Amino acid sequence: MSIEAIQGALKEINYPGFSRDIVSFGLIRGLDLSDGLATVQLAVTTADPKVPSQLKSEIEEKLQGIAGISRVEVEIAVSQPKQQAAPGGSPMSGQAPIKGVKRAIAVASGKGGVGKSTFAVNLACALERRLAERGAKESVGIMDCDIYGPSIPLMIGLRGRPEVTENTIVPLENFGIKVMSMGFLVDDDSPVVWRGPMIMKTIQQFAQNVDWGDLEILIVDLPPGTGDAHLSLVQTIPLDGAVIVTTPQAAAVNVARKGARMFDKVNVPLLGVAENMSYFEDPATGARYALFGEGGGNQAAEDLETAFLGQIPLFPGIREGGDNGIPVIVSDPDGSAARVFFDMADKILQSLG
């Protein structure tokens, strides 16, 4: 029996009320094994007195059945959250459900240039229309966490500065989508040169100091890669799932797979893979040309054991919509490009239940 084996067993114990295990949540502060005595030290932030006792019981039960362990001691340091956003809130300091937001979905990619933000905007508009059909009033928002290259404001036709009321930021809104972005706070030509702690603080502000109202779904547009912004996000917001965007070629797919593994490590479920720029269709002949290769998105979905949401063609209307600030879902809701996004929105809503 080794410390690694004990840690592996602890990964099978989820924090009460969450789908993430206590190891990936970062709750383990110490592990020791000596003469058959396994000692586990935890630190949790909770206002629920039942949580520590439940964790203690589950750890003891899990480890006592392992060969080589005769006794188990569990030490839990409990701290009270500064603000308890909801009963049974998160075990990680700083992480709490966003007020008024029922579901939070990350849209991510391994590399830049795959059309992730374009996808996020059109998906948001498609989800908004589908939820509006069900009677939802304030249904969808976008949190643009691409600190270094915020493009959401341009793509959804928003400019200006958000108002601040009683230390709360009021997001801007267009086409029924509420939006908060770093692009509202800096000049267009000003580069953002920040280190990790500043990124963390900004994402916390977007999550906890923005008046999102009552949202069914908040889409979180991440920057490419798996850097500080991603880690800050999963430490700040309980995500209900993530969508991976890639293009068909191997270079993009390989990096997308690596990026997706980050969500797996923190127990954020993958809702699917969307393949962008899949093909160009000649409007005169209807012939399709796979300019960036074929099958990459589907293969990535198989490798990641998640759903393949579909293919998004190289359709001029999608690009024009992003440049003009009128997403194709809005400008041509009955067109072939819009149907692709509506189909993906339907699959995601089904996955979310």
Task: Give a quick precis of the structure.
The chain is an alpha/beta fold and 353 residues long. It has 11 helices and 15 strands.
Overview of this protein structure:
The model is unreliable at 82-89 (pLDDT under 50). This protein folds into two domains: 3-79, Fe-S cluster assembly (FSCA) (GMP Synthetase, Chain A, domain 3), CATH 3.30.300.130; 101-352, Rossmann fold, CATH 3.40.50. It is of the alpha/beta class. It contains eleven helices and 15 strands. The strands form four sheets. The protein has an eight-stranded mixed β-sheet, with helices on both faces. The protein has a three-stranded mixed β-sheet with strand order 1-2-3, with helices on one face.
**Class by SSE composition:** alpha/beta
Whole-number count of domains: 2
Strand content: 15-25%
The main sheet comes to: 8 strands, mixed
Number of H- or I-type helical stretches = 11
Strand tally is 15
Mean pLDDT: 82
Radius of gyration: 22 Å
* Helical fraction: 25-40%
Give the strand order of the largest sheet, numbering strands 1, 2, ... along the chain.
Answer: 8-9-5-10-4-11-12-15
CATH architecture designation of the largest domain: 3-Layer(aba) Sandwich
Q: How would the global form be characterised?
A: globular
